[in-house]
């Protein structure tokens, strides 16, 4: 997990494209410039980055369903609950499942656990659009390849 | 049993915080009610769930972009409800 670079997912551990289910893992780094501000002397992963983590897990599942021909862009976050703090060194287990496969949009439900404890959960909506350019598509394919091998 | 329009009007009112009495069949969802595309995704999601269908938004958008249809044909609420009824009928056929 590289917080500064928004690389939130370390490894995809299970992916069922047909069912729309993904589970992934991330190790929170011991050090990050993010922790210098959030918060000085009490480093905690910001809630918005936990939402981003759930969005990325959902996103890789959706990308796989679309065979990397369309890109899911986060459009709506609802019912987000931050239940526990996440400190440096934590191991995160991220799960997401497809809730609805609409026309031009998809919704997922996602959650994170750490050491058997509920960390957070939310519902996410993605706008499904063509890739704005081939560079982004290539980057998504590369990143997915890296985290699928981990 | 509620009509398609009554159900859709209720969904629009709930998702977009528009008083129910302002939502009438001749209104255009975008130009008259001020709903934006993100709000409309919420509405489409609620309609899909309510009726167990998949509104073909991508196809409609494509037709609009290709100038094969006018916005009113899809998004004046009476027309929208007609199209929803068509999708429901196709599903039940």
Describe this structure in words.
The complex is a heterodimer of chains A (150) and B (93). Chain A is an alpha+beta fold and 150 residues long. Chain A has helices at 33-37, 47-65, 134-149, and strands at residues 11-16, 21-27, 70-82, 91-101, 105-114, 117-130. The longest helix of chain A has 19 residues, at 47-65. The radius of gyration of chain A is 15 Å and the shape is globular. The two termini of chain A are 12 Å apart. Chain B is mainly α and 93 residues long. Chain B has five helices and no strands. Chain A binds chain B through residues 75-76, 100-105, 107, 125, 127, and chain B through 38, 41-42, 44-45, 48-49, 54-59, 61.
How are the SSEs ordered, and which strands pair?
The complex is a heterodimer of chains A (150) and B (93).
Chain A (H helix, E strand, L loop, with lengths): L10 E6 L4 E7 L5 H5 L9 H19 L4 E13 L8 E11 L3 E10 L2 E14 L3 H16 L1
Antiparallel strand pairs in A: 1-2, 2-4, 3-6, 4-5, 5-6
Chain B lengths: L3 H13 L20 H15 L5 H9 L5 H5 L1 H16 L1
């Amino acid at each position: 997990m590289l917080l500064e670079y928004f690389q939130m997912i370390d490894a995809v551990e299970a992916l069922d494209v047909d069912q729309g289910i993904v589970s992934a893992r991330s190790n929170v780094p011991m050090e990050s410039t993010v922790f210098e501000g959030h918060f000085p002397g009490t480093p905690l992963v910001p809630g918005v980055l936990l939402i981003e983590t759930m969005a990325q897990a959902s996103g890789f599942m959706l990308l796989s369903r679309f065979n990397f021909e369309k890109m899911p862009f986060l459009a709506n976050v609802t019912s987000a609950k931050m239940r526990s703090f996440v400190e440096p060194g934590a191991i995160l287990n991220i799960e997401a499942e497809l809730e609805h496969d609409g026309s031009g949009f998809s919704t997922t439900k996602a959650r994170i656990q750490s050491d058997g404890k509920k960390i957070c959960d939310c519902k996410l909506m993605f706008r499904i659009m063509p890739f704005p350019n081939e560079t982004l598509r290539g980057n998504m394919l590369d990143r997915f390849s890296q985290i699928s091998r981990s | 049993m509620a009509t398609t329009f009554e159900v859709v009007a209720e969904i629009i009112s709930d998702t977009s915080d528009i008083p129910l009495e302002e939502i009438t069949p001749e209104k255009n969802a975008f130009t008259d009610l001020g709903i934006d595309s993100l709000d409309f995704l919420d509405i489409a999601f609620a309609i899909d769930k309510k009726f167990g269908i998949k509104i073909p938004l991508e196809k409609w958008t494509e037709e609009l972009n290709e100038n094969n249809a006018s916005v009113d044909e899809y998004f004046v609420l009476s027309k929208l409800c007609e199209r929803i009824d068509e999708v429901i009928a196709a599903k039940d056929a």
